[in-house]
């Protein structure tokens, strides 16, 4: 099979397309023909190797997982022994998580892993695009923030994959949403349901006079110390980017103060909980309550360009790689 690989750390040019053996499903696993996957910022971090903390997991000297990719949407083509939840021909969507490997024509997944049926009417590119941001945004808003109807939330980085999902999920939960993005993306976030927008090229959102129940930094460009003045008593600041600072403030604010700081390691949650979220997100998308936002769809042979686009830091929503026409 063909797979997108990066066997050395470096720039997007390290990405190649190789022929590698097609995996064989073991007991309890299904073999999925991948039709679409995404390139995320996390995968670019894994490929680049610039972050020393990331290298502790992805490999100190060279990548432990040369085939990148977490999200997938496709069709079950073979099943291992003892599989009961899925059958050959089932359309499925999900994530292989931190072990990676979804940037390939075929991938194996445990039937008890992060996998669910793809709803009728949802095409693979849209399926992976909604999962890309929503699998992160949902546990942040629902679980870490406990966002409820009638509350208010400010979302920084509202035009990226996590941000566009967060805007829509927050509205689904009944919250009033203020979205922070650049001038070029103001109309996009308004179309997704944002009640108020802040253009960060014109205004520093940390200087706004509004107060919020939740400040969600979907891109990790702010900090608790800069943002806490925006929080109502009992309010919560959340960021997607781990650092010593946020870990310290998360500990301190649990014990003292009127506001809270925190981070959620969404990719480390138990597989059954994540699989339920895949079903929930897929149903929302199929019903039109969660709209996929796709910056661009690249072909298999343009994977390096897809990585380069993500690294610009200016993508809208998700960057998708289609493998449907790459052959069987």
Task: Characterize the structure shown.
The protein is α/β, with parallel strands linked by helices and 328 residues long. It has helices spanning 41-48, 52-58, 124-144, 161-172, 186-191, 224-227, 244-255, 271-286, 303-311, and strands spanning 2-5, 16-19, 29-39, 71-79, 91-95, 106-110, 114-117, 152-156, 176-181, 196-199, 212-217, 231-239, 260-262, 294-299, 318-322. Strands 3, 4, 5, 6, 7, 14 and 15 form a 7-stranded mixed beta sheet that branches. The protein has a 6-stranded parallel beta sheet with strand order 10-9-8-11-12-13. A two-stranded antiparallel sheet has the order 1-2. Strand 8 (152-156), helix 4 and strand 9 (176-181) form a beta-alpha-beta unit. Helix 3 (124-144) crosses helix 4 (161-172) and helix 3 crosses helix 8. The longest helix has 21 residues, at 124-144. The radius of gyration is 20 Å and the shape is globular.
Question: Which key phrases capture this entry?
Answer:
15 strands; 6-stranded parallel beta sheet; 9 helices; 26% strand; Rossmann fold; Quinone Oxidoreductase, Chain A, domain 1; alpha/beta; 7-stranded mixed beta sheet; 328 residues
Helix content: 25-40%
Mean of residue pLDDT?
95
Relative strand content:
25-35%
How far apart the termini lie comes to: 8 Å
Please tally the helical runs, counting DSSP H or I stretches of 4 or more residues. Answer: 9
Level-1 CATH class name of the largest domain: Alpha Beta
CATH architecture of the largest domain: Alpha-Beta Complex
- Radius of gyration (CA) equals 20 Å
pLDDT < 50 runs, ≥5 residues: none
CATH level-3 fold name of the largest domain: Quinone Oxidoreductase, Chain A, domain 1
Structural class by secondary-structure content: alpha/beta
Question: Quick one: how many beta strands?
Answer: 15
- Specify the CATH homologous superfamily of the largest domain: Medium-chain alcohol dehydrogenases, catalytic domain
Number of domains: 2
Order of helices and strands: EEEHHEEEEHEHEHEEHEHEHEHE
- So what's the overall shape? globular
